[in-house]
Amino acid sequence: MIAEFGLAALWLAAALAALQLIAGALALTPRGAALAGVVRPVAVVQGLLALAAFGALILVFAETDLSVKLVAMNSHSMKPLIFKIAGAWGNHEGSMLLWVTVMGMAGGFVALVEKRLPEPTMLATLAGQAFVSLGFYAFLLIASNPFERLSPAPPEGNGLNPLLQDLGLAFHPPTLYLGYVGLSVAFSFAIGALVTRQVGPAFARAMRPWVLAAWIFLTVGITAGSYWAYYELGWGGWWFWDPVENASLMPWLAATALLHSCGVLAARNALRAWTVMLGVVAFSMSMIGTFLVRSGILTSVHAFAVDPERGSFILALLAINIGGALTLFGLRAATVTEGERFRPVSREGALVLNNVMLSAILGIVLFGTLYPLLAEAMGAKVSVGPPYFNPMSAIFFVPMLVVLAVGPLLRWRRDTFARVRKRLALPLLAVLAGIAIVLAIGDVAVLPFLGLVLAAGLAVASVLPLRDRNLRRTPLPVWGMVLAHFGIAVALFGMASESAFSVEKLVAVRTGETTRVGPWAIRLMAVEPVAGPNWTALEAQMLARYQDGRGTELRPQSRSFWTPPQQTSESALLTRWNGQLYAVLGGEATDGRWQLRLWWKPFVPMIWLGGLLIALGGVLALAGRTASDIRRLVARDKIAYRRTRQGR
Amino acid sequence: MTEQTRKTSRWTIWLPLALFAAFVVLVLIGLFRPAGRDVASTLIGKPLPAFDLPPALPERPGLASTAFGKGQPRLLNIFASWCIPCRVEAPQLDRLKRMGVPIDAISVRDRPEDLRGFLAQNGDPFQSIGADDDGKVQLALGSSGVPETYVIDGKGTIRYQHIGEIRPEHLPLILEKLKEAGR
Amino acid sequence: MRRLLALLLFALLAVPLAAQEEQSTAPYAYRQLDDPRQEDAAQALMESLRCLQCQGQSIADSDAPIAGSMRSLVRERIAAGEQPEAIRAWLIERYGDYVSYAPRVTSLTWPLFALPLVLIALAALLLRRRFTRRDGA
Lengths: 648, 183, 137
Fold this sequence. Notes:
With 183 residues, chain B is α/β, with parallel strands linked by helices. Chain B contains five helices and seven strands. Chain C is mainly alpha-helical and 137 residues long.
């Protein structure tokens, strides 16, 4: 029953999306103006219906209704409840349903609260949102119905990939999806603005909170995904430049650029066409990324099933949405003027450079990710990995960091280097100190060296915008910017430190023996079997001492799941302020010894701490902007209220 | 308004759409002509790399690269007792042997007792079996999995690599390749 | 669709079957070289070679037996004094460019390396146009 209810809700939501599109489009014509009032309520109800469908899917997963094919394929009755629920979106159909749900909810929310834009632009925006949603509804209903029944129901389900039975990963995809789909709102705003040719500060201000929110979710999602790969895959790597990772990085890069150009448009009414373009590109990258991952067209660690049928369906959606938007852009952009002018040396100038660098990195990542496909089309197989991506993105990343240090100190419109030169003394000093320290440690490769030194300079430079300010009256968005930029320095420091100073040790030891890795002495106490809800494991008990101090226990496991049968290694981590000890239990070696893999990774948690700081900076900025938006709204309502009273 | 009415130049405006169109074409090719996931050896047409493997079973001869290139084409089968598809291809190897095709084998990361069980159960079409315990000869041959079968011609040149198990429907292909190698 | 399901099931089953296969017994699959400089060189090379069975991972990040064999090969050859790039070339000779995550500059891959130049040129063009036309403001 629940499954049928969900399916009905989904069909209704799709029908309402169609209504929203038609009513929105007709309302833009003189004869259809009467329909204008329909669009907003329809958008809200459409979002709620999608949510109901998603709720139904969660319910059938929670009670493991094996007569639903999706549940039988991806779940199992002997599984902790939290992973049963997470299983609802841990598969293709469910994740697509999550996608339209978030999209519908976002559209409904925009329809409820956004009152700043001219009504025609809003109608076009909501119609655009409905158009994109409609494609995904069609995809769900025609090619991947999540509520399909299976008759007869099997006695037991296939289970969920054990690698995915992890709290971090259970919430990593939805977080990313919130980011991806949040960008769909920016996309729709861009379409709306192009249709009505209303590109200006009001458009940027309406779009900005959505971009910010999406960007926060993307930042958190990427950070969490990286940490998951780090501890779950058991080899201590945190970024592989794998296609799936790149697929999440590309929207982030575009969203970061969009965020900054939005700021220019909102504050200075400049970069109009460029901002609209980025609005289109950011969501396009989300869709392209999702397509690349879901179609299984690229070889990846996270190999999803290859299914050309579904692949071509999503590709058709992409071609219509992105191709349509870019065509509209081509037709309209020539009539969108560039807006206010500014000098190269100015806040805007720095932000333009930042945008150019981010776009270039995006270009490198996209091209490098797709190149193996291009080579295959030409009949050859190549691999493009870290040895390509690291130096090539550094070409643009390094100058971007320099701009990032200087830019926030510049004034809008026009400025001179002479004015900011004095303020840059401090960061330069930090850079020189960094160089001295790293040289003293010695033997650090070029890229980590650059990373460490630039991180030092940036950490200092990022807080400079707070100088000469009354801290109590500094607006929240400024705090947000400072925090996010500081977060970049922190993350960069973690990355560079991990790559420069990690120590690895592979050993085979007997119980009772001690081995050393970096400043740690680790003694293997015992290896014993343990059992969990749907797995059994061998667990090593180790005692780790830092510089022969007090011992701390570590318990890495080698787990065997039985539904589906698979082995995973659960690493054990020991975090100190100055780094992380990473221990993995390998196989049994000869004569009663156990293979251990141990790493000491100085300052590695900074990578993810930095990521969280960046996201927190976004939260502060969003809070600040939303608060002032609400104040403005309330003030306007008061004025309107007074006017009506006076009119009486 | 100090706004300028300068228009953005034409071709840069259409650049994104052009790039996206290129992307769609590329992906279409990828979707409908998916490249195999197999990693083929690039040694086809090149001489068999030199190796000298100890016997996998003490009572049988080992295998050295010098056994090839003596005028007659031969098959070189890479297999292991722990490999399920190897059992699937065993009847086909048996048929090839009965047709008079000489087959040598390399068993990868195997144990003599397991190997003996495997041969007893699935037949033993091999003239000699070399033991590649650390997988290095497999790497030298450009082989990335088991089973794989190479056709080596009379001059000791690799003429063909069959990736995966030889199924009954593959037999004509193997025979064809052997015939070509014999020319 | 049914066949796809069967394939998926098979893929799931194949994991434990492959797991029956012993961990690589190659001497240096799970053993580091004694000389830390050599081990560092080997590690750097291993991180840029592709595991041929797992396909999405480097041989430094994989428990697949063939990755173990490849690690051992790399370490032994480095210990014997061979240059990392010579070992990479040896593997490319056998498996093609696919085995290496570091693309070489060839007639097939030059666009990868031309791209940064193109991007710089494009950026310079856009920026110049933006800032040189009539000094407004």
